[in-house]
Amino acid sequence: MIDLTTLEGMDTAGKVRSLCAKARHPDPTDPTCPQVAAICVYPDMVPLVVAELKGTGIHTASVASGFPSGRTSLDIKLEDTRNAVAAGADEVDMVIDRGAFLSGDYLLVYEQIAAIKAAAGKAHLKVILETGELVTYDNVRRASWLAMLAGGDFIKTSTGKVAPAATLPVTMVMLEAVRDFRVATGRQVGVKPAGGIRTSKDAIRYLVTVNETAGPDWLDPDWFRFGASSLLNDLLLQRQRMATGHYSGPDYVTVD
Description:
Elements: E1 3-5, H1 13-24, E2 38-41, H2 46-53, E3 59-63, H3 74-86, E4 91-95, H4 98-102, H5 106-120, E5 124-128, H6 137-149, E6 154-156, H7 168-185, E7 190-192, H8 200-213, H9 229-244
Parallel strand pairs: 1-2, 2-3, 3-4, 4-5, 5-6, 6-7
Helix pairs in contact: 1-2, 3-5, 5-6, 6-7, 7-8
């Protein structure tokens, strides 16, 4: 359920290749270790990721629409999205215009999401709400419904560039929203908390919340993801502890 991510200005081809290798074989010493769900990068790195992950079943995700601020024109957002999909991305992570949302211009937010969804074509669209800037739980719920009504396939908490990022209460509000949306429309939408989830114990708390709030239908990588690259290392250390009986240190996993 983990999306491995690198979204830095200093990203290099070597770093992305290394991340793809880790995605394919998170623990090279244990062939039973599952692959991750996706790799998420900037659009210019998409062709490299597609080539590295060919035949693995791991998804290639690209941020778009003026990530992380979203402060650019709709034309540029649409072109950004089309370029990512043309390069091979099968998932697109867009950000909403928080300025428009907080100003009460909900129709503009809705129309932009719908336009970007259309530009994404068959690619799955993850709509980043940047909940750390939405201030209230009511705003999180309202933004979640806007994103789903506009055609979003996933709603995502954060870019990872704003604090606070994902929190359990905010994620629960979003899970309630997708649950209620499916009851109202019959369409199921995924949820992705991103940023700040670093330990296996934290991940278990989220999975329990998923099960008890939205239901077991969401306990699947198609419907729930963690945007938490550092979480993978702790999961690997926990797997090693279960196999060997002792907990290893960070030297036993790769540095992302």
